[in-house]
Amino acid sequence: xxxxxxxxxxxxxxxxxxxxxxxxxxxxxxxxxxxxxxxxxxxxxxxxxxxxxxxxxxxxxxxxxxxxxxxxxxxxxxxxxxxxxxxxxxxxxxxxxxxxxxxxxxxxxxxxxxxxxxxxxxxxxxxxxxxxxxxxxxxxxxxxxxxxxxxxxxxxxxxxxxxxxxxxxxxxxxxxxxxxxxxxxxxxxxxxxxxxxxxxxxxxxxxxxxxxxxxxxxxxxxxxxxxxxxxxxxxxxxxxxxxxxxxxxxxxxxxxxxxxxxxxxxxxxxxxxxxxxxxxxxxxxxxxxxxxxxxxxxxxxxxxxxxxxxxxxxxxxxxxxxxxxxxxxxxxxxxxxxxxxxxxx
Length: 345
Description:
Layout: H1 2-8, E1 15-18, E2 25-30, E3 37-44, H2 45-52, H3 58-79, E4 90-95, H4 104-110, E5 116-124, H5 134-137, E6 140-146, E7 155-161, H6 168-183, E8 187-198, H7 199-212, E9 216-226, E10 238-240, H8 242-248, E11 253-255, H9 260-267, E12 286-288, E13 293-295, H10 298-316, H11 324-344
Parallel strand pairs: 3-9, 4-5, 4-7, 7-8, 8-9
Antiparallel strand pairs: 1-2, 2-3, 5-6, 10-11, 12-13
Helix pairs in contact: 2-3, 3-4, 6-7, 10-11
């Protein structure tokens, strides 16, 4: 453990457990952010399973997402002022196609929270799998939006689950929301984000949110605050940056932020350098586009995951930090991915 922490500079000293009344998760507050940006980690076995096993897809993924979202909803009620807002001033922004798969909207409804729902679908014009660099980001456009339910003349608290890697999708989604809020005379007060979140992505969202007028930002990250690879896409807990290696032929090490006890639980299962959320929409059976439903793309996700893990194995196996349990985790997950692939093709 200590060798991994030292090699990858994993931020195990930046977490502090807080008392939480949820069922199956522990909640950690992350230190080192401005006072108007409260950052929490929702650490559960369900989150660990999703993060460590890209072979988990479809209905199994969906069920685990609801388990985490149920605890996240309780944490949001406990650590944010959401209860103080009336349903008409709570806005839930669905970022399509992938974000509804986190199932936070269902979990909040289950605990009696009412809200207005708005929808936006930013899309990379060119294929974006494992490529969110500057050139690609220029081709991020809105292909569907529906802000008709946005309330007029209200102080708004906004809930926005999504995978926040670079933060660019979040930025365009929030800017559209801000535009329509201004037109309706409503004011952006507080923002709650949830999902797999990288530290650079969170910082980008924070800066955008402050410029748009939000007074406070709350973040609830699944499992850990991830590192972010050179391609601005892959979100490992720790490990070598495969995209950097592919570009420059050199090993670059990355580490996210997690409690020491979380890292202990992940260690035997997490593949160093692996992308924890994966292609989130492609892990789902079907996704909502705004106008209808379409297949998520599970076979593509499984195939891509096999290829990435094989590359990570190749560049890691001779490193002095690479241990027997890493190799065992890789072999197990590759077998699980190949078995899953056979079922889905």
